[in-house]
Each structure stands twice: as structure tokens, then as C-alpha cells.
Design brief:
Blueprint lengths: L3 E3 L1 H13 L25 H9 L6 E4 L2 E5 L1 E4 L2 E4 H15 L6 H6 L2 H6 L13 H18 L3 H9 L4 H9 L12 H12 L19 H10 L2 E3 L2 H9 L5 H22 L3 H14 L34
Antiparallel strand pairs: 1-6, 2-3, 4-5
Amino acid sequence: MIGVVVDDGQVGKFARFLAESSGAKAFDFCSLSEGFIYPERGKAGVLDAIFFSCAHQFGFWTLRGNRWEAPMFGLLDGQRLKGSDFLFRAVTRACQQRPETFQPAVLSAMSDDALDGLFRSDEGVNPLPMWTEHLALIRGYAEWFVRQGTTPGEVVGAVAGQAKPLAALRSVCREIPGYAEDPLEKKTMLLAIMLENRPEKFLAVSDPESAVPIIDYHLQRSALRTGLVRVDNADLRRKLLQRELLGEEEEAGVRAATYEAIRRLMERSGLSAAAVDWFFFQNRTRCPEMTEPDCPACPVLGICARETALFQPVWRTTAY
């Protein structure tokens, strides 16, 4: 009914390409901008900071009326940073200044103003477009851990001892505010690949078959533009082209099709969720939101459908 389908032929082309690509490998969430964007390796408070940060990877864009307006940027420590980088830098800085900041008991005792202050830019404002939702999740997240009498470190330690640690992590995150609200588990899987691939190796994953695709709005944009997902519904296609706010069923249709396309891509290429995610996340700089795509610089130019006018679903959610 929605008119969004997986193009299985495109999936096959991309699977063959990625299986042979040196650029399709997991990122360590450290080596680039270590100590600035991402926490320094081996420092106190890093695991708490990672667990917190992943729960807040959502909503980094502004809406004007019923149309997408622009990505979120903020000036922090002298650098103009885009949404996710801004949030990671704010968390890294707070952790450097006070390593215990992101312990749930500490978060629980902080005032709303103090929490807001963690994310104030150089201009003295918090630029996160969905701050109200971030604050509510911080409160729920901290209360969950305090109520359970546990910590992120203890959760990771407990799941690490299970026969299927990734499956166990996914199971417990379905209860934790900040992770529990997304049935497709994007933020949980982001957390999992950070825990696995950070230099500290917080989590050894012995059950890679428990991994699921990581579907955010950048990946949906890539799937639509490359033709991995095809939109046959004329009205939905118009809304995507015009960057208009979608209905719940329309957004769910695009995201579900993207999830299935990436699931098949992982299966056929033999690559991990982390490797596929990092390949497409890097593509956001070549195929951005505000400027014309740099197609000649794109490694998949030869197999891309080049539907470069298509846009990700415009939809407010804490899931991604």
C-alpha cells in the first residue's frame, strides 16, 4: 500500500561491490578526533559516556512548518560541528572535566539547568532541536539504572558473560529509556558496535548472527538515492522530493524497506553491521543534505541509481 520496495537487483550489485571494497570495514569510534569528538581510550568514565551518547543519537535537524529546513550545527570549543559530532564532543568534554558525569546516579541528581548546560554551545545556547525529548530520556534513563541498582558497566559485564552477548545486550536495552522506544533498535546496535570496536574492546561479540541493520536517516537517504529502495507511490515520492513531513505509516514503510535492503546486503556481502554502517555513514559527506552530491568522488558511482533529488523521511522521532 505504501509503494516502497526493495530493489533486489541493486542489493546484489552493492553486495558484490562491498564484499570486495577496502572501504567497507568497521570504524573504531576513537581514532578520528580522539579526545575531541570521541573520548580518549582507556580514560575513566568512557563506558558511561558511550552508553549515554548512543541513547541520544536522534533528531539533529530543524523543521519549518511541514518541511525539513536544515541540519543542526553548533559552535563548540571553536569548531562548527554537525549534530552527532556536536553531541559526542559535548559528552567527551564533560567526561574530561568530570569523569563521573554520565554515571546514572550523578545524572539523576543534576538539575534540568545543569543537564542543559552540558550541551551549551560557545554562544551559550543549547542547539539540540529536540532538547525536551533529550531531557525526558535522560531522566528516564537515569531512573531506570538507579531503580535497578545497576550501572552501564555492570550491564555490559553481565551480558558479556552470556552465551550470546549481543542478543543479551539487545534484550536488556529493550527496557532502558533512550533505547527501548525503537523497535528496529538502531541506537542499541550503534551502542553494540561501539562497545565491540572501541580500542578498549568493552564487549566481545561471539554471536554476530544476532546483529541487525542500523537504520538512521542518513542511511535511508543513501538507500533511496542509490536505488536499493524504490518508491513507486507517486504521492510519497513527491513528499520525499519536496522534503515534506510524512505520515507515520509512510515513514514506517520507507524505514522498513531500508531495513530489509540492508539486511539482505549484510547477508549477501558477508559484512558486519558495523562495516556496512560505516561505509554508508561516510557517504553522507559525498551525498549530503544541503548541497549537490559529489558523484564523481563516490565509490559506487558505477552502480548507483543516482536518484539524488530523493530525501530521507522527514519525521520527528527519538529512534534515530
